[in-house]
Amino acid sequence: MDQPAASKRLARTMGRTIGDYGLIEHGDHIMVAVSGGKDSYTLLDLLSQLRAKAPVEFSLTAVHVDQVQPGYDGAPLRGWLEGFGVPFRIVQEDTYSTVIEHTKEGKSYCAVCSRLRRGVLYTTAERLGCNKIALGHHRDDALETFLMNVFYTGKLQAMPAKYRTDDGRFEVIRPLIECAEADVVEHARWAGYPILPCNLCGSQSGLRREKMAELLAMMEQDNPNVRQVMLGALKNVHPSHLLDRGLVERTGGHEGAEPSAASGLIQLRRERA
User: Fold this and answer.
1) Sheet with 88-92, side-by-side order of all strands
2) How far apart are CA 110 and CA 84, in angstroms?
3) Helical H runs in 149-193?
4) According to the model, what pLDDT value does residue 258 have?
5) CATH (residue range 5-204)
6) What share of the chain is helix, strand, coil (3-state, %, to 5)?
């Protein structure tokens, strides 16, 4: 079966994102976090393909964290990694017990789980001598996160393409952050990755992220391009038209003055004429 158009779009979009945000530089040793889901498989696969033809040299090491969840079977993932040809490590750390212990009933496991897993990844990256950590978040993850922050925490915050960890040791990069999840789904289906289910997240329903995904799907019925439009909005910020006084002061508030009432009235009359 020929490679689908979605796979080519992913490679093209990822390459553009890497170039636009300077995600990969000569000599980088990148640890790719592989959860066993479609996103991280796709990320590792595409980065490996890119490495073969990139104008700069960089190395990859795949890392999977076995969090000792009940029913976990990592054999399919290990088998795939062994045949893929990229150096890999599987690190076992019982974060599952801690997640269950510290998550209140009815609350999402994801926040505590991801925070603990991130700590394991940082420790492993240091041990392996990696200077960058690549995560598989895509465009839809960024949009859902943005909506959750707006509706539930009162922040205009999404997911950056890259950031430096608080301790300054690593740069975390998200090469797929502008890629559509629908393309990842189609590519992963074609590639036949052995997907590992997350029994922890999969045991919960009706959570905030799930609701945001439903909201996006509903909005998409009215505007099929709404996801791409929202991504564009995250890249087209006008600080002077927000209510964050500190932000306006830092930017000077000169990037676009709001039209006066008089000019607005003149424009309205022109439209009616």
Assistant:
1) 88-92, 59-66, 29-33, 132-134, 171-173, 162-164
2) 29
3) 181-191
4) 52
5) 3.40.50.620
6) 55, 10, 35
Q: Where are the alpha helices (DSSP H) in the chain?
A: 5-21, 38-53, 75-84, 96-102, 110-128, 139-148, 181-191, 208-222, 226-234, 245-251, 261-272
- 245-268 pLDDT, tens digit per residue, is 888 788 776 665 454 444 454 454
Q: Quick check: 199 pLDDT over 70?
A: no
Helix (H, G, I), strand (E, B) or coil at 266: helix
CA–CA separation, 234 and 199 (whole Å)? 32
Whether pLDDT at 205 is above 50: no
pLDDT at site 249: 81
Q: Does the pLDDT at position 174 exceed 60?
A: yes
Enter the tokens of residue 7.
């796979």
